[in-house]
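Duplicate of #3305? Posting structure anyway:
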């Protein structure tokens, strides 16, 4: 289940035809997964209660981050060598998600 309405995503992409709906939905689902993994929280549709302690309702900033990532994938569907080397999220997306990111401390001492 996707968190954003396909009409909003298509409006952001300026797509007014149905031919690409399937691929847009796939990019959107991937963007939502990337955002959830980056902030290390479960994303829950706005208005729903978080399902877990680490759950968070989708805020306007998270919505924009998902839209930006979806657009980046849609507009750059042909991966090139430079894009493959860059595994870092765009700066704007990172800035939007920074307040929601969970930082965890891992004990690597072996004790």
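Output from current build:
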């Amino acid at each position: 289940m996707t968190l954003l309405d396909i009409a909003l995503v298509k409006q952001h992409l300026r797509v007014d035809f149905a031919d690409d709906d399937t691929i847009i939905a796939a990019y959107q689902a991937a963007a939502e997964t990337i955002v959830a993994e980056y902030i290390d929280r479960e994303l829950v549709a706005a208005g729903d209660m978080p399902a877990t302690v680490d759950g968070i309702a989708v805020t306007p900033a998270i919505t924009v981050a998902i839209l930006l990532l979806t657009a980046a994938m849609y507009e750059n569907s042909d991966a090139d060598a430079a894009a493959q080397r860059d595994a870092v999220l765009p700066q704007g997306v990172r800035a939007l998600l920074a307040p929601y990111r969970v930082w965890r401390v891992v004990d690597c001492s072996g004790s």
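Confirmed duplicate; merging threads. The beta strands are 42-44, 55-57. The mean pLDDT is 87.
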